[in-house]
Amino acid sequence: MTNVPPPPPAEELRRLDQELLRLDARRAQLLHRRAWLLHLLATPAAPPPAPGVPGPVATTQPGPSAQNVLLALGGVLLAVAALAFTLIGWGQLGIAGRSAALGLVTAAALAVPALLVRRGLVATAEAVAVLGLVLTTLDVYALRQVAFADADGTAYTAAASAVLALVWGGYGVFLPRLRTPLPAALLVAQLPLPLWALSQSATALPVLWALLVTAALNTPLALRRLSRSPAPSTPSRPGTPPSPQTPAPAGGTPAPPAPGAPSAGPGTAGSAPVGVPRPVGAVGVLAAGLAWVTGAAALLGALSLSSLAGSPADAAPSCALLLAGGVLALAASLRRPQAASAAAAGLAAVAAAGGLLRPALPLAWTAPLYLACALALPAVAARSVRLPRPVRHGLALSSAAVTSGAVLTTLPALTLTLLSGPLSRPAAPWRGLPAGFRAVPAGGDAWDLPWQAMSTAPLILLASAAALALFHRRRPRPASAVGAVLLAAGALLLVPVALDLPYAAGLALFVVVTAAALASAVFSSSAAASHAALATGAVVSVASALLALAGRGATFAVLGALLLLWLATALRATAPAVRSVSAVACVVHATALACASGAALGLPARHTALLALAVPALVALLAVRVRSVPMEIAGAVSALVPLVLAAGHLPTLSLVLALCGAVAAGTAVREERRAAGWAAGGLFVAATWSRLAASEIAAPEAYTVPASVLALAVGVLRRRRDPRASSWLAYGPGLSMTLVPSLVAAWADAHWQRPLLLGVAALVVTLLGARYRLGAPLLLGAVVLSLVSLHELAPYAVQVVGVLPRWLPPALAGMLLLAVGATYEQRLREARRLRERIGRLT
């Protein structure tokens, strides 16, 4: 046992002081709550009003929200009235009268808020100030109509907006408690420079420069205002417990103020407390948003101009604008470090460098050029140790965005490469290998596609994969590992298309990519990278197999190589997912190889089915030693291929069904696969029916009844040995072996003897099942009896329906649906009880 030494006295004293502060704060909160509860108990509750009698009229003052709504509505009405006066009644006054009226009204509207603010009526002052700002706008309009009618409209609007911005800004500084003038001045200040540039030049570049200068003027204001924004809460002095918050009672009613607390008078509603500075964060946020909007508009316009330039000289002005925007964003990010502005700076720098060099290069090298500039950006940033971490992160984000855009440009070529096999090869297999990888074997002609634009796609993917690999080496992430694997595989797959390699060489490269992907899936230490490599190997393997259909030798070579690769992966892999997928892929490729072997030997489809049946049989044998559920499921699914191939020939189909039943019966020998016996029984019965149908037997009972008797005898012995055995396992195969073929024959029989005998037999089986509570005889007999009765009564039902009016069947169906809907719950309970009773049958 180790003795822990006590803490030093100074540390222990500090802990005690902190604990006492917590206790004092909690005590103050409880005392405040106690005072509120006493106040609540002392206030008599008003009795509820009687029904139909109106309650007492509330005498409380309306809240600040209602007052603000009323004031805003009044201000809007005054502004509308002033606008109507200016537009309609203006012509009825002379020049002196017009000037005097507007000047007096505007001066009064701007002077009254100062008096109202002194009296504490800030909300009322805000509404009147808004009216004054609107009146100044009308003054500018009136001045234009009277004194500057011949001036250029755009230039006058620019000058007027500059004057209004200065006036409104000074007014907001003079009355700092008003919230409207400064944001309004900031909004109007965005117009002078762009409008002045638009009035002086017909080209877009001066306007874009004006937008960028406007963003540059907004940026310092945003940075200064945001840095001056007050904190959400003011920390208390050391040694003073925090003021407790009064909890609200149940129901959401706020607690009344503590006794002695000053209450707001009717004249102070909506006003800020005296001595508290007005928050400036809203102006900073607005300035930041306007800086982003104007800067983004300038940079996007410059990017558009640089993309349309035909030479580096033509692109230089727009690229200079992009570079200036990047410098502005970088300066803002250094002044207030954040990733968003740094990312904008990185994008602008990449666009400037790429836009300047783009006209000197072919069109196919546009995406690689921008990608190279983007990949160089983090390297340059890494050499600067003075850059803050958010700035580096933003530059990395801009590089990742440009890289993603460059990768997206390669998707058409990659999609075409992977889908070229499914689109063309199965339609005309084994026509011979074409000369180049860009040709379609079905017609022998080359695709008319922009191959020059696709020639740089492998370079883009390879560079992106290398960048992700380097990033993963510094900071291991599952996403970067997956991206590196996928991009590297895509780069290799695009090499045959980009270089137009010989078809055999391109096909061999596909197989090599599959091998590399499977090796990465086996030996990769990252689970995410392993799964990505496995998925890549599966996709490329399928594409390789389909591409190999161009030639007979290529088909067997590629399928054999792929089978060996997947088999080696299944044997060497340790991850369960990799082993399972590899086992399934082995079954798929083995089935494809068997079908290709039958086609190469010139066998018809029904004989190829017998050859393909060897795959599920081999899987069933391997399952004894290799316990892989996915492999067994794949083997069972692969048995559908021979069934489909033999479906057109009933004798062969009967043989295939019997062999599948034998495989299923062999699987059922295993203790954990007893359920396969059901499938074996069903396959044997289906094989019998197919054989009878192939032999055109008119009386199947002569062949099915003896087998049914033998099967029923075996079922009786099974039930005697094990009374708990299911009746479906004991009597189901024997009964269905006769009842089902007879039912099929009865439906095609025009005479009455077989339906009568079958109906009597089904009735006897149903009664025996009900007597001894056996599920299989009861349900099988009932179903067969119902179908036989329907077959016999169908002609009469058709005649009756033909006599009835046309509207009667829909009406009866509607009434039935209404009845079922009205008694839905009862029918549901009855169905549940029926299911429970059937479930209790043996």
Strand content: under 5%
Quick one: how many beta strands? 0
Helicity, as a percent range: over 70%
Q: Which stretches of 5+ consecutive residues score pLDDT under 50?
A: 46-67, 229-280
The radius of gyration is: 43 Å
Shape: extended
Biggest β-sheet description: none
Structural class: mainly alpha
**Count of helix runs:** 33
Distance between the termini: 66 Å
| Average pLDDT level | 79
Describe this structure in words.
The protein is built from 33 helices and no strands. It is 74% helix and 0% strand. Helix 8 (204-227) packs parallel to helix 10. The chain is extended, with a radius of gyration of 43 Å. It is an all-alpha fold. Residues 46-67 and 229-280 have low confidence and may be disordered.
Topology:
Blueprint: H1 9-42, H2 64-87, H3 95-118, H4 122-146, H5 153-174, H6 181-188, H7 192-200, H8 204-227, H9 281-308, H10 312-335, H11 339-357, H12 366-383, H13 389-408, H14 411-424, H15 451-454, H16 457-474, H17 478-499, H18 503-523, H19 527-547, H20 552-572, H21 576-600, H22 605-612, H23 614-622, H24 629-638, H25 640-645, H26 650-668, H27 676-694, H28 701-721, H29 727-747, H30 753-772, H31 775-803, H32 808-822, H33 824-840
Helix pairs in contact: 2-4, 3-4, 4-5, 5-6, 5-7, 6-9, 7-8, 8-9, 8-10, 9-10, 9-11, 10-11, 11-12, 11-13, 12-13, 12-16, 14-17, 14-19, 16-17, 17-18, 17-19, 18-19, 18-20, 19-20, 19-21, 20-21, 21-22, 21-23, 21-24, 23-24, 23-26, 26-27, 27-29, 28-29, 29-30, 29-31, 30-31
